[in-house]
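Regression check, adenosine-5'-diphosphate case 452:
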Amino acid sequence: MFKKVLIANRGEIALRVIRACKELDIETVAVYSEADRECLHVRFAADDVCVGRPPARDSYLNIPRIIAAAEITGADAIHPGYGFLAENAEFANTVRASNIAFIGPTAEQIGQMGDKAAARKLAQKLKVPTVPGSPGPVESMEEGLKVAQKLGFPVIIKAAAGGGGKGMRVAPDTEQFAQAFGLAKQEALAAFGSDEVYIEKYLSRPRHIEIQIMGDMHGKLMHLCERDCSVQRRHQKLIEEAPSPAVDVTLREDIGDAAVRLAQAIGYVGAGTVEFLLDEDGSFYFMEMNTRIQVEHPVTEMCTNFDLVKEQIRVAAGEPLSFVMNGHRLRGHAIECRVNAEDPARNFQPSPGTITAYHPPGGPGVRVDTHIYAGYTVPPYYDSLLAKVIVHGNTRAEALARMRQALDSFIIEGVTTTIPFLGRVLRHPDFIAGTVDTMFLEREPQLLKNPA
Ligand code: ADP
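Current build output:
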């Protein structure tokens, strides 16, 4: 087992990894930017190293500095968390070339799945259904328009290197195709350094269903059922739950099998997520694979009682999987709400600032993963996630009631948060009925406004 793990991240996920390390009796190293001196991950880790100025490219994305921090402190492994360098093949390579274990897949596996156009091809080869679209990357506007006309509008143009909803544009018709194509390419180049794009048919009311995967170095690979992440804003997840109200036993088996086939084909080790779109007619389509732990992993933890982060660390150290899923059945129902420092009424504009009062919800089946505290100042440099509220109930109805009371008793003052907005979604008849799709918030803009 590892002796000392460096966590190349900040915020709640850094705390989450530190907790897992402590339970496994592993020492920890925090890295932090000049804006994060007062962060709890710095306080809770045994060792800490400042890696640079506040902008992420000068600190959390600075590979040589992070490697140097690991070498100085004698860390024998690095956990990347999510975001930042978690899906950076060059980072995974450099870590291993420096004789440090990378808690995640190989650089090749990150590369194979990081190119979404290539991942689509692999899925097709394995007879995993993909959304109808271009066979590969599309070079020119003219070629793209031909593909789009053949598929039928609307279509979505996606960056092959994409992630986090960036480099993605919907073209509703022929007239608006050229502009959407150009913007997607531009955005892709700016965000990922590559303007390669591909095209998919744009489904009108899909649900986002993803399968949690876990594999070890001894050839064992399993799935831990689905999460439903259909409540989204501009293709970004806001609320996640498991099991999905739209998935029955047969569908779970089919999607789970498809996900396992795909992960097995690349010999996947560690935690990963295979994402699908579920169409209204019950067809499902592979979208992409994320080769890291995800923000919403606690939803699966609450319904399986397995610690996915500890398991990631164990399998990276060469240990066999410590558990098996029993008949692919989830226990009860879990929901996660992402609490962000944003103002939904102002187009989700970030609202950094100092937290003046803080009191988290509690009670049976309530979990809060957060790094904030009263007096903490939310810096403007990073994503605006303040906390994740995760609840578990014996039934979906119990989980819903539990989440409503948890949100209502969550006190965060000093910054505008998404808590009141989340509370309104939790009370919407469509969410209660379990029938929402990814376009739900587009149809219900009044949910974004505070009632007068
Ligand atoms: P990213 O990697 O940037 O998160 P994804 O490919 O995972 O992008 O897509 C994110 C979200 O965008 C999906 O959850 C879904 O809401 C929407 N989306 C992507 N592809 C399509 C499609 N073909 N039709 C409809 N919605 C889509």
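Comparison notes: Residues 249-265 form the longest helix (17 residues). Residues 131, 156, 162-165, 168, 200-203, 206, 208, 232, 235, 275, 277, 287-288, 438 surround adenosine-5'-diphosphate (CB under 6 Å). No diff flagged against the previous build.
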